[in-house]
Amino acid sequence: GGVDMGDHPPITPCRAARGGELHGDLARVYDLVVRHFIASVSQDAVWKSTQVQFEIEVLEDKGLFSVSGKELVSPGFLAVLLHKEYGEEERDPHSLDPDEEDEEVRSVPEFREGELIPISQASSGSSSGNVQVIPTGSYATLNIKERKTTPPTHLTESELISLMEKNGIGTDASIATHIENVLKRNYAELITGRKLLPSKLGLVLVQGYHFIDSSLVLPQVRSDIENQCGRIAKGLASKEDVVQNAIKTFRGKFDFFVENINKMDILFGSSFAKLEDVGKPFTRCGLSRRYLQYIMGPPTRLYNKYTETVYPMPGGGAVKQWTGRKCTVPDCNFELCMYSVGNPERTFPLCPYCFNNPRREWMPNSEGEAPQPEVQDDDEEDKKKEENIRSGGRKLVLECPHPDLHPIVEELTVAPDPDSDGVLVLDTHFGPKWRLVSTKDPTIVYFPKGTERVTVLDKRDEELGFRMIRVEFNAESTPYKDGTLKKVTCFAADEELQNAVRVYHGSERTKMARRGGGRGRGRGRGRGRGGGGRSRR
To answer: Given this model, what pLDDT does residue 437 score?
Structure first.
C-alpha cells in the first residue's frame, strides 16, 4: 500500500525458469511469485470513471438518480496479473450503501449538463441488475431491479490484519500469533473463505470487557503501548519509563476489573449454564468427600461445585459408576469409576484424580530410578496450557486410562500380553462372563463357560512375579484333567488353563463409532497367553 512497514523485502525471483523446467505446483508457485514481483515494479493501472446525475421532475425529492461506469485506459500492472480487478476495493455486490460508488466496467454515453431526455418504459423481462440510462435517439429507457440489503460478512484474516495494522496493533512478527491465540482459545473459529466467526464465548467475553472497561477491548490502549515501544526503538523514550507507566496503567485497570468482576459473572451466567446445574452426582471426591457432578460434555468431565475443580475424563469410551471402591494410592481416596472402551468393551478401573495427575513412578522403565523433576521453560509451559485450552481438556484414550504400574491396575494384573507391551488384567465387570483384557491392545481372553468366579490374590508367582488367581468352575466346565473345581494358579504359567480360554481380537473403537468388524484376526483357542511374555504356539 505504499507504506514502509519496516519488514523484510518480498520474495524476489533470481532467474527466469526455462520452459519445462518446473511442473505442477512448483510451476504455479513460481508463476505467482514472478507475476507479483513484476507487477510491483510496473506502471499503475489507469481507469477513467464517469458519473452522471439525473433528476426526474415528476418524482420531486425522490427523483434523484445517478449512473456511473469506468473504462480501462492503461492496464499497467493488471496486464501482468491478468486481473480485471485488483485488491479489496471491488464493491460488495450485496451492499447497497448509498455512499459507495456503483461502478461497472462499461462506457457511459456522452451527456450535456442540463440536457432533457424523455423516458420510455423499459421492455418487460429485463434482467439488468442496475439502473441503465440508454439514449436511443430522442428518448432513454430505465431498467430497475429491486434488491434488499444484506448484513456485512465476517472479517477474513487478511481484513483483520489490515485493521490491526491500521490501528497500530501488533507487528508483522506478532499479528499472526495474536490471531492464532484467538483461535486456540476458542474465541472465534475459522470458517469457509478463511473468515473468522466469533464464538459464543468470545462474544460474551468482549461484551463483559465492554461492560466493565471498554478500553480493554478497544484498540487504543494496545496501540499506545506499540507506539511507546516504537519510541524506545528510536531512542525517544527510555525503557524503564515506558515499562513503569504500563505497569501503573494496567495495575489500575486490573484492580478496577476485580472490583467489578461480578458484572462478568452475570453475563456468563445468563449465556452459559452453570456446571453445578447440569451435572448429576456421580462419585465422591477424595479431598472434600463431596459428590462430583458428572458433566456429559463434550468434553466429559467431573466437577466439584464446592471447590470449583474440574476433572476432565478420557474421551473415546464410556465412563460408568462403580460400587464405591476407592483408589488405593496414598492420599488419594477418590472413588473409582469404570472406563469401557472398544468393541467388545474392555473395562478398566479409573481414578479421576490420578488420571489428571499421573506420577512418574507409574510410568514404564522408571522402577528403581529416582524421580527427576521436570524442567520446563515458559514457552513449553505456555504451549501445554494452550493445548489444554484448545482441546477443552479432552483426551482421547483407547486403552487403559492408567499406566500399567498404577496400583489399581497392578492389583488386577495377572500376566503379560504377548501381542503388545501391555499386560492382561481382570476385567472390572467381573462375572458372569469372566475375562481378561489387555491394557494396550483390543484383546480379550474369555474364560471357559461355566467359570463361576475368578479372584486376583495378593500372592505372587515366585518365578514370573505376577499375581496368582483363584479360579472356580462347575463340575461340567473344569479344564483340568483331574477334575479340579477350585484352583489357585498363575495364569501366565498354567498351560492347561491357557488352552481352555478363548481369545478375541476386537476393535479399539466403541460399538457406536464402529464401522464394520474387528481387525479380522478371528476367534479361536488362546494358547500362548502369558508364558513369561512369550507366545507359545
So the answer is: 93
The full DSSP string for 227-286 is HHHHHHHTTSS-HHHHHHHHHHHHHHHHHHHHHTHHHHHHHHHHHS--HHHH-EEEEE-T
pLDDT digit string, tens, across residues 403-459: 999 999 999 999 999 888 899 999 988 878 899 999 999 999 999 888 889 999 999
497 by DSSP, 3-state: which? helix
Confidence of residue 510 (pLDDT cuts 50, 70, 90): low
Q: How is the chain split among helix, strand and coil, in percent rounded to 5?
A: 30, 25, 50
pLDDT of residue 329: 92
Question: Residue 170 — left, alpha, or beta (φ > 0 → left; ψ -120 to 50 → alpha)?
Answer: left
As to burial, measured by CB atoms within 10 angstroms (0-12 exposed, 13-18 middle, 19+ buried), residue 235 is exposed
The whole-number pLDDT of residue 456 equals 92
Q: Which of 240, 182, 219 is nearest to 386 (CA)?
A: 182
- Distance (Å, rounded) from C-alpha 442 to C-alpha 433? 17
CB 50 within 8 A of CB 108: yes
Q: Which three cell numbers stand for residue 142?
A: 430505465
Q: What is the number of other CB atoms lying within 10 angstroms of the CB of residue 426? A: 22
Q: H helices of 51-199, where? A: 78-81, 157-166, 175-184
3-state secondary structure of 408: helix
Interatomic CA distance for residues 479 and 477, integer angstroms: 6
Count CB-CB contacts under 10 A for residue 169: 20
Question: Under the phi-then-psi rule, with left for phi > 0, alpha for psi from -120 to 50, and beta for the rest, what region is 533?
Answer: left
DSSP code string of 517-534: -S-S----B-TTS-STT-
How is residue 301 written as a grid cell?
468431565
Task: Find the farthest-apart pair of alpha carbons in the chain and give their distance in angstroms, rounded.
Answer: 120
pLDDT for res 8:
63
